[in-house]
Amino acid sequence: MHRRMLFPLLLVTTTMASARDKPLPPLMLPMTTPVVTMTFEGQPLRLRVDPGATRSVELNASAARRLGLADPAFRIGRRKPERGRATIQVGKVKLREDTIDLPLDYAGRVLPLTLAWSDADHVDGADGLISPRQLPHDVVRLVARPASPNDRTTVLPMRWEGGRGLLGSLPLGRNTVDIVIDTSMATSVATAAAAAWLAEAHDGRLTGPRRDLRISRAVERPVRDVRFGRPVDMAGVRIDRVAARIFDWSGRTTIPEDTAPSDELVVTGRVESQSRWAKLTIAQDRLAACAEIGWQREPLQISLTCPALP
Predict the structure, then answer these.
(1) How many CB atoms lie within 10 A of CB 288?
(2) 219-234/204-216 β-pairing
(3) Which stretches of the chain are DSSP H helices?
(4) Separation of alpha carbons 289 and 36, rounded Å
(5) Three-class SS state of 80
(6) Residues facing residue 156 across a β-bridge
(7) What is the CA radius of gyration of the chain?
(8) Domains of the chain with bracketed CATH
(9) Closest Cα partner for 50 from 165, 188, 162?
(10) How far apart are the first and last CA of the chain?
(11) CA 273 to CA 249: how far, in whole Å?
């Protein structure tokens, strides 16, 4: 009996000791390849650091297979790992994910992390995604180039919600839009509730045809663009148009329609509401011009050093 109890007790003691360790020095990574390497029993995992990630390390299916995480015989030492199943909803698409709690070695620390994977590879150039909040650094800097005199730094206060990740706020009258900074996503996108509120505040109109856009975990969803008569200046970047997920989530405000394509039947911007989460994800189409994106634990914030807005 005592032998069986020793390993879990040792793991908990190690984890608590790691949590009390002083933070590591600030971490600086290239913005194009912000990858750190962690190991489990000597097997490497290359993880892309992304402020748009949530509480779980999102693994590619190929990485999970390589580590044998789904094998019922998989053990941490002699102990069976804690496992789970999660349902992730991306618009109207539901994904099933397996999860496992695993201690990963990084820079001399043992990090107790939850890893999640589905049946797809969705992270390019790495084995998975990890939030900077999961790292033992109080400052993480993603650097694309040296800052110039033409750059300005904007600080965005953040809060943490495990299932949704790092969130900033954009007040719009009586409404508030959550802001996500996502360095892995190619195209900025707004939920329909966010698009409707932004359109109301900034003279926005639906324009162009419906198209499919990769949103999360390799899931593509239909979007249309909203073009703003008055650009949205947020977090040091300017947004004159944004992809809107009007076919998934909706608020109650109708987005005005621009001139409809003559050869296409278009839908209006109002659909039945599934969830009223108003979220604007700022992605690489707006962030690529920035010199640096920095994350800080205390106070929790993201700083963006980007070309000054005109």
Answers:
(1) 13
(2) antiparallel
(3) 2-20, 61-67, 192-202, 284-287
(4) 23
(5) coil
(6) 302
(7) 21
(8) 23-137 (2.40.70.10), 143-307 (2.40.70)
(9) 165
(10) 70
(11) 6
CA–CA distance, 114 with 5 (Å, rounded to integer): 22
Residue that is written with structure tokens 């005005």 in the block: 256
Tokens standing for 217? 């975990």
pLDDT in tens, the chain (310 residues): 333 333 343 344 344 344 458 999 999 999 999 999 999 999 999 999 999 999 999 999 999 999 999 999 999 999 999 999 887 777 677 778 899 999 999 999 999 999 999 998 999 999 999 999 999 999 999 999 999 999 999 999 999 998 899 999 999 999 999 999 999 999 999 998 899 999 999 999 999 999 998 887 777 889 999 999 999 999 999 999 999 998 876 445 578 787 544 333 333 334 344 457 899 999 999 999 999 999 999 999 999 999 999 9
Residue type, 252: R
Supply 307's token pair. 């070309």
According to DSSP, the residues that pair with 228 across neighbouring strands are: 204
Tokens of residue 293, six digits: 């994106």
What is the pTM assigned to this prediction? 0.85
